[in-house]
Write a structure and sequence with these properties.
The protein is of the alpha/beta class. Helix 2 packs across helix 3, helix 4 crosses helix 5 and helix 5 packs parallel to helix 6. It has nine helices and 15 strands.
């Protein structure tokens, strides 16, 4: 049984019974107790369950695992980049997020930030996204006000694109847009392979006071088919520690604040 299947089944059991111990879970899933403990620790880290001595109980936020567990997402670089990007977001902000593995990680970091988990009825954060997987995950977080654009779904990225996506953003003002891209070049700027995706992402950038691009080092210095925004629009570029000094200097020279994590 694959990891995401075990995690889904564990949450289903907790949803039905409220609690389960390690030995019971191991027997029902047909795996070792050590595997169950690792799975429970992983889900506890995502605040989907609460660990107890010898088992787990249902968390305040528990639901069937979304599509994120069906894709490889645990690259250390992307996780560090996402954490750094989420740390830039102040409580009360209006943040735009496009689709992608790194921005999905940013959404999770924001969703589990304890300083944003307000006990009041007023959301601690407003998040505007054209990514249906991100919206699906954040819908269960009462401290996040989630705003979704319209548009036509692009299966490769789970993003809503087209005129309906861009039109819905024209009357909004964002404090910050955090954008994942396919390529970012010190002359051409940020870009993606699909022109429809680029159009929706460009609209997010245009409505934001500050644009943050999140991209691992393999995307630096590359060009892709459709420009999202020119390089002078990018305020901050967050990448990993493997980014070459020469490339970082080229971005810095044109006014981009590059942060290697």
């Amino acid at each position: 049984m694959a990891a995401h299947e075990r995690w889904t089944r564990l949450l289903e059991i907790l949803g039905e019974e409220g609690r389960i111990d390690v030995a019971q879970a191991a027997e029902r899933l047909g795996v070792s107790a050590a595997t169950v403990r690792r799975d429970m620790n992983e889900l506890a880290g995502q605040q989907m369950l609460t660990r107890t001595r010898g088992g787990a109980v249902l968390s305040a936020v528990a639901y069937d695992l979304p599509l994120r567990y069906k894709t490889a997402r645990r690259a250390d670089e992307k996780h560090r980049i996402a954490r750094a990007a989420a740390a830039l977001v102040a409580p009360g902000s209006v943040v735009g997020l496009n689709g992608g593995t790194t921005t999905s990680e940013v959404a999770r970091e924001l969703a589990t930030r304890t300083d944003l988990m307000s006990e009041t009825s007023t959301p601690a954060l407003t998040l505007v996204t054209n990514a249906i997987n991100i919206a699906n995950e954040l819908a269960v977080r009462p401290h996040v006000k989630t705003v979704v654009t319209g548009g036509v779904t692009r299966p490769n990225s789970y993003e809503l694109t087209g005129p309906l996506a861009t039109a819905g953003l024209q009357s909004l003002a964002l404090d910050r847009a955090v954008l994942g891209v396919d390529a970012v070049h010190p002359e051409f700027g940020a870009a993606t392979h699909d022109e429809g995706e680029a159009g929706a992402n460009r609209a997010l950038a245009e409505r934001a006071e500050t644009v943050v691009v999140v991209a691992d080092s393999t995307k630096l210095g590359r060009r892709a088919f459709a420009q999202v925004c020119p390089v002078h629009v990018i305020s901050v570029l967050i990448t990993d520690s493997e980014a070459p000094d020469e490339m970082v200097e080229r971005f810095t020279a044109v006014g981009v604040d590059v942060r290697r994590v």
